[in-house]
Amino acid sequence: MARQATNKLLQKAKKSKSDEFYTQLCDIESELQYYPNCFINKVVYCNCDDPQVSNFFRYFRDNFQRLGLRKLIASCYREVENNLQANQNAYYCEYEGDNIPMHITQFAGNGDFRSTECIALLQQADVVVTNPPFSLFREFVTQIVHYNKQFLVIGNVNAITYKEIFDLIQKNKAWLGVNLGRGISGFIVPEHYDLYGTEVRINENGQRIISTNGCLWLTNLELNLRHKDIDLVKEYIGNEDKYPKYDNYDGINVNRTQDIPRDYAGLMGVPITFLHKYNPDQFEIVRFRKGDDDKDLRINGKCPYFRILIKNKRNI
Ligand SMILES: C[S@@+](CC[C@H](N)C(=O)[O-])C[C@H]1O[C@@H](n2cnc3c(N)ncnc32)[C@H](O)[C@@H]1O
Fold first, then answer.
1. 241 — phi, psi (to 5°)?
2. Could you tell me which CATH number the domain at 13-224 has?
3. pLDDT digit string, tens, across residues 28-75
4. Residue to substitute in 12, 29, 77 for testing ligand 1 pocket (most ligand atoms within 8 angstroms of CB)
């Protein structure tokens, strides 16, 4: 029993740890430059963002006119324990440009993105842009899709492997943004964050920045880059030995996106990093990870290949 309780506590600590990665302005700027016309006359909602500290709020407020925004809303969440502190109630802020006074409203509840108060704000919004708590990522994205909203959010690379998220990608209802992995330079972590064994630096504002290799942007905002074909330079015919067939699926294994052969018309298993270059006009995503026996893809009885099965759509 005691052990179970300790595990629960550890789990909670782990959960809240990665939930406390705060996004740097430079990383927001570096991604947002690719969506120049997506915000014209739009209401943007940052629903996991304390306007006093959020760089998402700062970015959209500072670029309000340039982006042609109609309104910006940011709301913050307060855990019950924190409510003991003065001035720490959950609240939201509405900004409609410098000529209109900024409006701050206290929530009756805790500002949970799933609360009726936050859902009412979501319903007013066109686009949700934020870095949500990683531990609630699927629920977060599912809710946005349910309300038929556009979004641009940061998540963990593993999120691609969640059924709900993969389904969206497969159905072309969501795709990867431009920056991923080291393309996101790092997150601000709070003072109490345990830095033991992690790659960390202090930035020019004295903030502690943790570098991770494991995050991405997920979006359903139009992105010109994703309509660019992957340049295929390899050939299957004559190199069959480099592309072994799976034991439990009629398809070949391709270890790197740049090795996708241009002359193979059947199914190919590619690593999940393929999604970063994926052009839905060029390839179709057929399924994920499992062979015909519903077990992980295998070659000669070995290796659970973590692969996405794709098919070239162009006439070969
Ligand atoms: C990964 S941090 C990112 C914060 C901010 N969006 C940013 O990018 O700097 C996730 C934030 O979500 C907040 N949060 C946690 N659970 C939440 C919930 N259920 N509803 C809304 N926000 C939540 C946390 O307080 C934390 O500030």
1. -65, -25
2. 3.40.50
3. 999 999 999 999 999 999 999 999 999 999 999 999 999 999 999 999
4. 77
